[in-house]
Amino acid sequence: MKTLDRSISRLISLLERRNPEGIEELKGLYCKCGRAHVIGITGPPGAGKSCLVAALVREIRRRGKTVGVLAVDPSSPFSDGAILGDRARMTEFSGDNGVFIRSFSARGASGGLAPVINDAVDVLDAFGKEVIIVETVGVGQVEMDIAKIAHTVVLTLVPGYGDSLQAMKAGILEIGDILVVNKSDQPGADGAVNDLSFEMPVTYGGKEFQCANIKADQWGVPIAKVSALKGDGVEDLVTVIFEHLMFITERNIFTGICQKRRSRQFLDILTQQVRDRFLETLKTDRDLQKWINKIENLKLDPYSASEQVVDLVEKARILADNGTTPRNNR
Amino acid sequence: MKTLDRSISRLISLLERRNPEGIEELKGLYCKCGRAHVIGITGPPGAGKSCLVAALVREIRRRGKTVGVLAVDPSSPFSDGAILGDRARMTEFSGDNGVFIRSFSARGASGGLAPVINDAVDVLDAFGKEVIIVETVGVGQVEMDIAKIAHTVVLTLVPGYGDSLQAMKAGILEIGDILVVNKSDQPGADGAVNDLSFEMPVTYGGKEFQCANIKADQWGVPIAKVSALKGDGVEDLVTVIFEHLMFITERNIFTGICQKRRSRQFLDILTQQVRDRFLETLKTDRDLQKWINKIENLKLDPYSASEQVVDLVEKARILADNGTTPRNNR
To answer: A single GO molecular function, which one (chains A, B) (predicted)?
Structure first.
């Protein structure tokens, strides 16, 4: 492994385990953050996302930019041959100092993957990666959170989802800044593009694309036809991705996304820490077992018990606020 | 829809939205809980879980027991034809008063699906369903949590996962009380069963099964070959499931699982409520915006900011504990 990659990898591993030394190291890196363009690649299983990511990395490297890839794979304990094959395909970049690749499994990640991915994005950003690609499977809650990390969200679909697409359109259209119909060589690709088109065509980089919808910021969501495997349409897709970056940078949306991500991250960390400390306190509390016993013996239901405990804590807080809370530090 | 089903469905919908009236109604139902046998069906996408669940419901109904099915589908915004088809297959039970079916999407469920599923299991239990089947996709963190709700976990696999199975064995074997190799008519089914066999065969209901491992409670995990589509092996599988119920009931493990689930549920609700109240307090706190501004302007990193806030809260707590905490209610 390349030397710089080894430092990045070591730090991310520390942060995955919420290691205090790792967090201290990260604190010193925030001042270097805020420059990278974060691209989220999402879509259903089987849409060829890993293959698309490999094609994107190839094209972005051709344009001279450095890339970091964070692949989030919640189903990884069951990773089958196809997924392993896609990962193997990534070894084509193993000799390239400008590419860093790392996979994450949702398994065992307490508190969800969002905090870990946030940290990993910051690490790659601080270490100078110009483009960071976050690849996620599906659009469950975890994946939605991860999509919020990205400046540009690319939603990847394949021909043949026609009927259900029709039904889910409203939900799907919200997610992406760019829609990709992958496997464009398969029958039904043009039909899928047509199914998704609801607005007048848009032109980016001198090329016309059909348009799915107009976002609140007036960005017209283009539908790019791509065969990631053959490389068809990938150049145009990267052009569109960078056009989106330009669009959001010129309108100060880029900075807005970074700031929103930062404050959301702060609230995430804060609630996580409050939760951890609260659970720690509870564990050492001799009274807690009494509550649990009552619940296990069905003398008290969990909702009523919880309300009673929270009320007790709340009362303690209110008493503290009436005079003794230290507010001078704020 | 059947009248009883409508009441159940209404209450579950209220609980999904954390509606206070729904929670009040649920509180009154806990006394009727603790009788249902909860079966978890988990496994990778494409293992034919929905089809297996339909076959199980058919066989369990043939034996005269009432059934509730809770299908958790985190990828549902992208549900394709196959999944919709499986759901449609469930309409075969729409005229049967002894079957209740409900699907959940992970989308939009704040705080994960585990709380909602826990509540739904309690509702079905209280309304007298004798068997409750919880079907989940994959084994991410959410799914692992849901597996903890079940008394009997059935892990569903298909032939052709050979290589990766080999690699993941340790992890996979922990999860299931019963392994199913589905699509037993496909080539490689016997090979898959052999790959998973690590112990001497076990006999349940007069039939011999190959054995994956021996659990801590001395239950030998059988490997059942099933073709859910054709119905082959389903009768034996249901026999094994009920043998497992007998095994854990005789050894008082059943009660233990119920009690553990209850106390885990209590801690989940408690931390959720602490988190919600804390966030509520923060939102009305004029000082919070100052912290967020500092973070957005990169004057403070989110970890340091979070630590400082938690320390402030902690100090308030300690001051409160030194004399003024009301402890008499406990």
So the answer is: kinase activity
